[in-house]
């Protein structure tokens, strides 16, 4: 009677019932992989990021299906809204802004960027310095300390310099923090034959790739109440930068490829060893 009222064939009704009672093994597997990728991102990945992560696993699925499954599974990304940056024009006369927001570079070890942030580690703040290569936004050096001093930035720079094979002709860009303008840090740059560039005072857009790294770290990875100890923080930050961020987290700059993966692909296409 209901089929007659709605002008639906009875065969269509029984087909619908059979489909409702049949388990789709492919979709069950897809949901499991989707949930695993979401957990790996600690709840930060949106539909486009999850789509890219699934593609890396050779799983062919569309964006709208990923969004539907996210709704069904109640997977909600915790990405924050856009941040408003201050604008300023003041430069250090002796260390000009040579990069001048030219963030798209064509070769590895052409421009590195560095910055410092703070993280709660049990009972006090600790400090993290990171260096990235703008070529594919890959994290290449980092260091943690209980003091935000020049030794911290030098340690991160040393690690980057060693990890990248002691390159020459690099430009290093940072903000105007005292750690980067200190005599000891500038002497280390001179020893490595690295050219220095500095953002204009109070202008975070001049070093926005580094701001983006720290924003992602704090919103996607660091627990909302911080860590329990300095050692725990070091281990977790190391895993985020050197493993998840470099090798698994899709980056919009690289057409949704992880930085290290994109860099190796670009190097292979360019014949760079």
What attributes does this structure have?
273 residues; alpha/beta; Nucleotidyltransferase, domain 5; 2 domains; 5-stranded mixed β-sheet; 5 strands; elongated
Give an account of the 3D structure.
The longest helix is centred in the C-terminal third of the chain and has 19 residues, at 230-248. The chain has helices at residues 2-5, 10-20, 25-40, 47-56, 63-73, 150-163, 178-181, 183-191, 208-221, 230-248, 259-270, and strands spanning 111-120, 125-133, 138-145, 171-174, 195-198. A 5-stranded mixed beta sheet has the order 3-2-1-4-5, with helices on both faces. The radius of gyration is 24 Å and the shape is elongated. The protein has 273 residues and is of the alpha/beta class. Helix 4 (47-56) crosses helix 5. The protein has 2 domains: 2-73, no CATH class; 111-270, 2-Layer Sandwich (Nucleotidyltransferase, domain 5), CATH 3.30.420. It has 11 helices and 5 strands, in the order H-H-H-H-H-E-E-E-H-E-H-H-E-H-H-H. InterPro entries: HTH-like_dom, Integrase_cat-core, RNaseH-like_sf, RNaseH_sf, Transpos_IS3, Transposase_IS3/IS150/IS904. This is IS3 family transposase. Residues 104-266 form the Integrase catalytic domain.
Identify low-pLDDT runs.
83-93
Record field, number of beta strands = 5
Number of helical segments with 4 or more residues: 11
Proportion of residues in β-strands:
5-15%
Order of helices and strands: HHHHHEEEHEHHEHHH
CATH evolutionary superfamily of the largest domain:
Ribonuclease H-like superfamily/Ribonuclease H
Shape: elongated
How many separate domains? 2
> Any guess at the CATH architecture of the largest domain?
2-Layer Sandwich
Which structural category fits the helices and strands?
A: alpha/beta
> What is the CATH topology descriptor of the largest domain?
Nucleotidyltransferase, domain 5
* Biggest sheet statistics: 5 strands, mixed
Determine the mean pLDDT.
86
Protein name: IS3 family transposase
Organism: Pseudoalteromonas citrea
Pfam family, one: rve
GO molecular function: nucleic acid binding
